[in-house]
Amino acid sequence: MTKRTTCLYLFLIILVALGLRLINLGTEPFWGDEALSFDITKHYTQDISGLLLYLKTIEVHPPLYYLILNIWCKFFGWTEFASRALSLFFGLGVVLLGFWLADILFHQRKLSLISAFLLAVLPFQVEFSQEARPYMFFCFCAVLSAIIYWRYREHNKIFLIPAYILVTLAGLFLHYSYLFFAASLGLYWLFEITLSNQKPRAQKIYLWLGVHLFIFLAYFFQGINLLYKMFLGDHLLFDTPRTLSANRPVAFFESVFNQLIWLSKNEARPLSEIVVIFVFKIVFLAGLVWLIFRQREKFLSALSSGRQPLIYLFVLTLLPVVFFALSPFSVAYAPIFERHVITSSVFLALLLAYLVSFFDFKKRILVVALFLLSIMNPLITIVSDDSLWDGYFRLKSIAEQINLNYRQGDLVLVSSTIGRSDVNHYLRGDIPSLSLYPLNLLDYHYDFLSSRETLGLNENESQLRSLLDPSKDYGRVDRKMDYILKKYQPRRIWFISDKDYNATKWFEEKHWRRAMDSLGELHPLKLYDSHVPALAN
Q: How distant, in Å, are the alpha carbons of 89, 116, 150, 233, 480 from that of 92?
């Protein structure tokens, strides 16, 4: 295959990747974490020192993504499309880097093109190329770091060491989850030195120690912030402990790798859809195994002669997931908690491309077609408008209804802690809003570093804390609502909550009239009116 032909195919693959990632990019409203990171950045757009203090104290996230997003949105606008376009840009970069990594590992242009195509259509990659969060950023850094190390391994060019350090630090300052990958790559490098017969081994070990000691020292103070957040969980705030579950399913690893290929966002699926997806998976996997068995001699020969790149990809795929399993983030606290090991999806795609590359043209087309059929349903779900079915994306429609029907004297009350700042992203600036939880924080205005757009210290931490027996909360609900009534004197309260029995009980016992009921999980908005005609008469 000529270089010109390769460039043409790669250009077409990038167009496919771009087309998939552009679908609904600016149509979907923000979900909670997107709105929060966006609003934090915008709130501190002219106060970088304030942003760094806030992130260090409240969010405890590394600052690099927020700083880049700040610069990007100043140029391209403070919109959903603009902020997500930044992730899209790096998502396309991952496709190109995947092609480059496959090329330097296997020196086969066809294999490299297959790798790029799989990354272009992989649901996990498409999903986070459309999200205004830092996951595609550190995924880009991970693949670039893998390329830099392999080039150094092959050519022993010392100028690649500073590049390795800079890219690793960039990944670490983008997101803490980069630690899973950085530790895996660092250990692989150490294992290669230990198992290698090349000399001088001691000098290489000293270099390895020096590189990673420099990274450790450069990252030390940011790491202290992470430890601060972890140790904060050992202390009671408002007499409530952290309540994150430590349970993981027995099939944890199978579940994670299934998500990395066949990403599922909607947990509730009809049986017919589940059966169809399962059948396509089985057909694809069975077809792949059968074709490899048919060419087992060629396959085994290639494994014996070129096993080192495969070991490299296998380690970078599996080891981050192992480290992830040992961390507290590996419990299902979010719909796609596997985002912390997004890097493994890239190396998994390259391993799959390696298997496909053994076949002739017709069989290769058949296997890729079967793979596309197996991911078609997840991919359609990914590129569709999530706000049509996912409650996480309904903040905008809820806020718009309040904006249109607001009256002087109304108050917006959000049950969830994080929901207050999230709904304020779409709510008119003159409409007062409060959060019901945490109950012992009577008013967010008194919380440390809180604002209309950002969560304060106690608000942010309360997301991880709750009483073990929610039925005991009613007394505190009554006390907080009494405070709200005295200070704000609302005539009507817009209450945003899916299920909050204590608050509902309070409104009923205080004889507030339900002027509008919730429309269900996709629109959990109720309107309570303090004027009750029966009592007035």
A: 5, 10, 21, 38, 49
